[in-house]
Amino acid sequence: MDTEILVFDGFDELDAIAPYEVFRIANRRGGAIDAALVTVAPADRVEARSGLRVEPDGTLSEPDFLLVPGGGWNDPDAPGVRREYDRGDIPESIAERFEAGGAVGSVCTGSLLLAAAGVLEGRPAATHHTAREDLRAMGVDVREERVVDAGVVLTAGGITSGFDLALHVVERECGPALAEAVAGELEYERSI
Fold this sequence. Notes:
Blueprint: E1 2-6, H1 13-28, E2 34-39, E3 46-47, E4 53-54, E5 58-59, E6 65-68, H2 81-87, H3 89-99, E7 103-107, H4 110-117, E8 124-125, H5 132-137, E9 141-142, E10 147-149, E11 153-156, H6 161-174, H7 176-186
Helix pairs in contact: 1-6, 2-4, 3-4, 6-7
């Protein structure tokens, strides 16, 4: 399963890097799952919320699973989800990918970008606790869970729940033994 994690200026580091690490470890352990960091438009470098600079692997293609991190929803004056929500390019790309048949997911406030893309309509979703009311105001059935699996749309709550979402995807795609092995290598206690 090819996974692309969509990065943009102001994304939260752990929202993207934790799932990336989970997927890459699963791949090294023989799982048919991999991950790349991508952007919507070509970029040499993306700067995350806390200053981490990332060189993307390329631009969004047609992955089996597209994962969208959060970061910056509550600060409209800084780069991040709020700015990308208002700009509209990322939600449009998410909608196109979803309509083409790919599964999508989000970590933290990345769910607001999924909502803007229309993929949360009629589906339950999780988000960071500070954005739950905003997501509800968009008509989304918000759940206070770490991971919500709605089939082709998966969402995770707060920042560290990206580990849980990624391990859930590994279990779903590659089996529980591999998910447990990856969690063990990370010394991460799964909460779901």
